[in-house]
Amino acid sequence: MAGVELSKIRKTFGGTTVLHELSLSIRSGEFVALVGGSGCGKSTLLRLVAGLDEPTAGEIKIGGRVVNGVGAKDRGVAMVFQNYALYPHMSVRENMSFALRLAGLPAVEVAARTAEAARMLRLDEHLDKKPGQLSGGQKQRVAMGRAMMRRPEVFLFDEPLSNLDAQLRVQMRAEISRLHRRLKSTVIYVTHDQVEAMTLADRIAVLRDGRIEQVGAPLDVYHDPQTKFVASFIGTPSMNFIQAAGLAGVNSPKDAVDVGIRPERIQLNSAPGLIRLGSGSVSLVETLGATALVHVALKDRELVIATPAGGAPALDSAAEAWTEPSALFFFDARGARVS
Amino acid sequence: MKGSRALACALLLPALAPLLLFTVYPALQSLWLSFHEMAPFSRDTVSVGWENYRLLWSSPEYWHCVRVSCLFTLYTVIPSLALSLGLALALDSNPWFQGFFRTVFLLPVSISSAMAAMLWLFLYNPTAGYLNFTLERLGVSGPNWLGDPRWALVAVAIATVWKELGFNIIFFLAGLSGVPQELHEAATLDGAGWWSRLRHVTLPILSPTIFFTTVVSIVNSFQSFGQIHILTGGGPAGETDTLVYNLYRDAFVHFRAGYASAQAVILFLIIFAATAIQFRIARSKAHYG
């Protein structure tokens, strides 16, 4: 397996710059998720690593070797596409073995490696089927199998689960995680789903407008967001924001403009040492099973509070929101964290 | 139920009536006529049984026409498909030029066969034609394209390919636009070069379009008439005398309606058989969805 080093990558399409001097270092065997909203440049970055596009400026190294200008097939990478990109006229077996057959490997070896990958991905029964005869999850497994067959240095995943239903997505997430542990491969995984990123990755890189906002272990990014964007993007439900000026009894940093509080850190009852965030009426209660999301309409905004489902207040009842001082994140006017 | 069936028939009638009147009825009439002989300028007919077919079977001229038609199909269909596929691939990879050149290649399709044939008549003129003039400038002595029995069929085929090219290009471009970009990218990552991508990805996915254009081109080729009529009139020495041209001459010059009808029936069977064979091949080779 090989590490990936991205140095000052810039990518411009026409007059539009999609990636701005972006640098990222990925260790060998590491699973890194690139997360961000639509158009943030995460898929473009993946395509640059794959060799499907060339950067306008900057250097890409795979396994210590500069791969700028090196063809996609010679970079030692394999990619799993969002829409699977399976060859519709080939059987599962032919799809998986295509790269090896092109490389001219002996038929015996091709057959053995196809059988091994099919066994690992539980595709043995489907080897003679065409992609059109498979379910979404099976197609995704074939796409993963095809990538595995080449024994690449780096696996690239481009939103591989976004076309699957919620239940299948959870199953496939576990499958990818198992596969990574088993193959110990370097993985760059693009997703807009922060739950996927949090559950799968060793580290996540949050992208916004072609720049990396923060890189770190999932829980570090969650507990210690460096920008307001990262704080709002990571975590479900999203972090609440209120104006620092409206918060009484708190020593806000000098430049603080906004204060962020995670929904699960807000309480509906007062207790010693807690700060009062405000009061209002319950406008919505979303029961998710064990927990409930209580929406409390304050004077100028709404707070979302995650509470145990049993303790959720009734709709339209009066409610007060409280939190610990340590749960507050302060951000300046530019959205940078201040403390 | 009865009412809805009547309504369905009423709605179908405007489309069905011309079809029955101008296609099905003449076809059946032709079949009937092929077993009769008809006096010129008269509606009087005499039943002759299989005589017209027997005459055709034993006619060396007719077998010559079969050979010419097959050669004409070979000379037009293969170059037309190969050229249009090549040009469509080139245009598909250069979207900037596509709009302009698609129109350029489609222009010949939009003009009438007669006008196209007249244009080529001027180009092929052995003394004042631009083609031989250009060849002469290049140091090559051009043949008498339409007057030389060795070149006449090739010359008519070139004019036909030029006229039909745009039609096939449009279909191939439409087919190529249906090949997902991701498949090319996946194949590139799998190690496929341009040729491998074409062979293993593009062509299999394009196979239904290739099949369709092949069938249509073969049918069109067997039915070509206008350009042959204007450029060579079946000559020289019968070298461009195709089945359709021979049929036309027997029906409207020699006034042998029954004999010509038998030729029409045979031409129909040839085209039907060729199409059926292609469908059979396509069932195993063409990939649909």
Folded structure, characterized:
The complex is a heterodimer of chains A (339) and B (289). Chain A starts with a strand and ends with a strand. In chain A, helix 2 (92-102) crosses helix 3 (107-120). In chain A, the strands form four sheets. Chain A has a six-stranded mixed β-sheet with strand order 6-7-8-3-9-10, with helices on both faces. Helices cover 25% and strands 32% of the residues of chain A. With 339 residues, chain A is α+β, with helices and mostly antiparallel strands. With 289 residues, chain B is mainly alpha-helical. Chain B has one domain (59-285): Orthogonal Bundle (MetI-like fold), CATH 1.10.3720.10. Helices cover 75% and strands 2% of the residues of chain B. Chain B contains twelve helices and two strands, in the order H-E-E-H-H-H-H-H-H-H-H-H-H-H. Chain B has a two-stranded antiparallel sheet. In chain B, helix 3 runs parallel beside helix 7 and helix 8 crosses helix 9. The mean pLDDT of chain B is 91. Classes of the chains: A alpha+beta (339), B mainly alpha (289). Chain A binds chain B through residues 50-52, 71-73, 77-79, 81, 83, 85-89, 98-99, 102-103, 132, 146, 150, and chain B through 180, 182-183, 185-192, 196, 200-201, 204-205, 207, 287, 289.
CATH class assignment of chain B:
Mainly Alpha
| Tally of individual helices of chain B | 12
Largest interface: A-B, 23 and 19 residues
Instruction: Note poorly predicted spans of chain A.
Output: none
With strands numbered from the N-terminus, the spatial order across the biggest sheet of chain B is 1-2
Q: Give the H and E element order of chain B.
A: HEEHHHHHHHHHHH
CATH architecture of the largest domain in chain A: 3-Layer(aba) Sandwich
CATH topology of chain B: MetI-like fold
Low-confidence stretches of chain B: none
* Largest sheet report of chain B: 2 strands, antiparallel
Helix content of chain A: 25-40%
Question: What is the CATH C-level name of the largest domain in chain A?
Answer: Alpha Beta
Distance between the termini of chain B: 36 Å
**Share in β-strands of chain B:** under 5%
Rg over CA atoms of chain A: 24 Å
Encode the helix/strand succession of chain A as letters.
EEEHEEEHHHEHEHEEHHEEEEEEEEE
Mean pLDDT of chain A: 92
Q: CATH topology of the largest domain in chain A, what is it called?
A: Rossmann fold
What is the approximate shape of chain A?
globular
Radius of gyration of chain B: 23 Å
